[in-house]
Structures are given as C-alpha cells and as structure tokens.
C-alpha cells in the first residue's frame, strides 16, 4: 500500500502533487488545509482523510482521526509534540494503540519512534515563502514493513 502524507497546505495546491501522489492508495492531510477545494483536488488523486488544523476555521473536519490503512493503524492529528504529548493526546494514543501518528503544524519534517509509536510529520506543503523548505512524504507498506520517503517541493525561482 502506498500512502501520500501532506500537511499545512494553507489553501495552496502544489501542482506537482498530481505527479508525486500518482498511484497512491490514500492521502492523509494533517491539518491547516485552508479550504475544501484543497481536499477536493486531493480527492481527485485518491481517497483523503484529513483533520482540522489551528487555521482551519469553518471546515467541517474532526480534530483527530484514526484510520487503518493496510497493516497500519494511523492516528492523524495536527498539533503534536512527540516528546511532550498533551494528556488528552497521550490518552488517545494509549486507547487507540496506533503504529503511526501523523501530524503537522511545525512546518518541519519529523520522523522518530518513541515508546513503540512512530511519529511522522511530512513538513510544509503550502505556498512558497521566505525560502522555507517545503515537502510531502510517501509511505509504503509491504510484507509487514513500512518505509517513508520525504519529497522536497522546490520553490519557484
């Protein structure tokens, strides 16, 4: 199974996503979507599961979603501090027992296993600004193993 991971689009649809996410089975958007049209664009590529980000006023999205994709149980939430989880999020992770937590908000790639849970942030996919590095990620699962590949989104010159 191949999963596209994206966060922090802030109402900007990167045209390269059509190529990058071609052939994915599912897309997970970890919040700060911007507007529904971003989700519509992504849904044209693959089924989408998304959560509400701190700038997503007016979108009808949940704060947290749990989705099983192939062998992976994934918890999707926008603001996650892996080393200092809020009490509520720690309880939800304990209850759900996901193998993977996908989050956004920091605009920085992150990948680490902590206490048996894999935490992953695909980075910032919004409009190019101030030379900030932009990225998405592809997650592939096969034969009980999972691997992630971060894909840099170049800024126009």
Return Rg in Å.
Answer: 14 Å
Instruction: Provide the number of structural domains.
Output: 1
What sequence of helices (H) and strands (E) makes up the elements? EHEHEEEHEEEEE
CATH superfamily grouping: Metallo-dependent phosphatases
Number of strands: 10
The name of the CATH topology is: Purple Acid Phosphatase, chain A, domain 2
Q: Looking across the biggest beta sheet, what order are the strands in?
A: 3-2-1-9-10
Overall body shape: globular
By CATH reckoning, the class would read: Alpha Beta
The percentage helix is 10-25%
Uncertain segments are none
- The CATH architecture assignment turns out to be 4-Layer Sandwich
Commentary on this structure:
The chain has 157 residues and is α/β, with parallel strands linked by helices. The chain has helices at 17-20, 36-43, 87-96, and strands at 2-6, 26-29, 48-50, 64-69, 72-77, 100-102, 110-114, 117-121, 134-142, 145-153. It has a five-stranded mixed sheet with strand order 3-2-1-9-10, with helices on one face. Strands 4-5-6-8-7 form a five-stranded mixed sheet, with no helix packed on it. A hairpin with a 2-residue loop joins strand 9 and strand 10.
């Amino acid at each position: 199974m191949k999963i596209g991971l994206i966060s922090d689009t802030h109402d900007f649809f990167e045209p390269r996503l059509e190529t990058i996410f071609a052939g994915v089975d599912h897309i997970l958007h970890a919040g700060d979507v911007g507007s529904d049209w971003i989700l519509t664009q992504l849904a044209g590529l693959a089924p989408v599961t998304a959560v509400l980000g701190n700038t997503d006023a007016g979108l009808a999205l949940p704060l947290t979603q749990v989705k099983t994709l192939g062998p992976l149980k994934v918890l999707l939430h926008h603001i996650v501090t892996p080393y200092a989880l809020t009490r509520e999020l720690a309880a939800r992770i304990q209850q759900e027992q996901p193998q993977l937590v996908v989050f956004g908000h920091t605009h920085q790639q992150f990948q680490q296993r902590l206490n048996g849970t894999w935490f992953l942030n695909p980075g910032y996919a919004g409009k190019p600004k101030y030379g900030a590095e932009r990225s998405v990620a592809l997650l592939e699962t096969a034969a009980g193993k999972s691997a992630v590949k971060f894909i840099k989104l170049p800024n126009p010159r």
